[in-house]
Design goal:
By secondary structure, this protein is α+β, with helices and mostly antiparallel strands. Helices cover about 25% and strands about 25% of the residues. The longest helix is centred in the first third of the chain and has 17 residues. The two termini are about 35 Å apart.
């Protein structure tokens, strides 16, 4: 009975944190013994992954969210051990235990990648059912008119089905960090920048969308995910924010 109470206390939820105290120590026990047991519970909770909302409420903690500006060429994962020639990963940038990517960003794309230590927040960001908007800045080949962007706004047919309508507009070239390596420029072919906002989660979706309308993507930067943006964060740098 005592061991089960300890398990509830360490891995249990919310108000049950101290449910085992009176089971282990009767009411006649000294208050100092109870205080020591409570301190052990708190210490164990602080070491445990904070994946339970009620455990966070018990400790007065908030979810941790990392806003990372992922550089070009870096995988959005912490290991690449299965590859014969391991490629750069997040482990060379983010030296924080217990945080994991909420979604992914292709190796050849740059910009905002969110990492968190909270499973519910990770699902809310990455699960397509929540339709969290993602804003991309795409440098594309071509000189499209506003009407040329109509198919992207209405939805285009890809090999895995039609896309949802997207918000797309042409923008002036943004002030971004230099890409390493730089994009391939062909002097005979014009290019421009588009701001594209989607609410889906598909593999290489923006690149496939622009290619489907004859505007191949040269450079792709994810600028925002929901309320969080990468503005002011240098490539390879990150900011730590707290989320209730």
């Amino acid at each position: 009975m005592a061991s089960m109470a300890l398990i509830w206390g360490i891995y249990g939820l919310g108000s049950r944190l101290f449910s085992g105290v009176q089971t282990i120590f009767p009411r006649t026990s000294s208050s100092c013994k109870i205080l020591r047991l409570k301190e052990k519970f708190i210490d164990a909770l602080k070491r445990a992954p904070l994946t339970s909302k009620s455990r966070r409420e018990t400790l007065g903690c908030m979810a941790r969210l990392i806003l990372l500006n992922k550089p070009y060429g870096v995988l959005s994962q912490f290991t690449d051990a299965k590859n014969p020639s391991p490629r750069p990963t997040l482990s060379g940038i983010v030296d924080l235990p217990g945080v994991y990517p909420a979604g992914r960003l292709d190796r050849d794309s740059e910009g905002l990648l969110l990492l968190t230590d909270d499973g519910r927040l990770q699902a809310r960001i990455a699960d397509p059912r929540h339709k969290m908007e993602k804003t991309y800045l795409a440098q594309v080949e071509g000189d499209p008119s506003d009407s040329d962007l109509g198919p992207l706004r209405r939805g285009v047919m890809l090999n895995d089905g039609p896309t949802r309508p997207a918000s797309v507009r042409r923008i002036a070239a943004p002030e971004l960090w230099p890409r390493d390596p730089p994009i391939r420029v062909r002097q005979s072919i014009p290019d421009c920048w588009l701001e594209i906002v989607i609410s889906e989660v598909r593999n290489r979706q923006v690149r496939r969308m622009t290619a489907a309308v004859g505007l191949p993507t040269l450079r792709l930067v994810r600028w925002r995910i929901g309320p969080w943006g990468v503005e002011g964060i240098a490539p390879g740098e990150w900011q730590d924010v707290q989320v209730p």
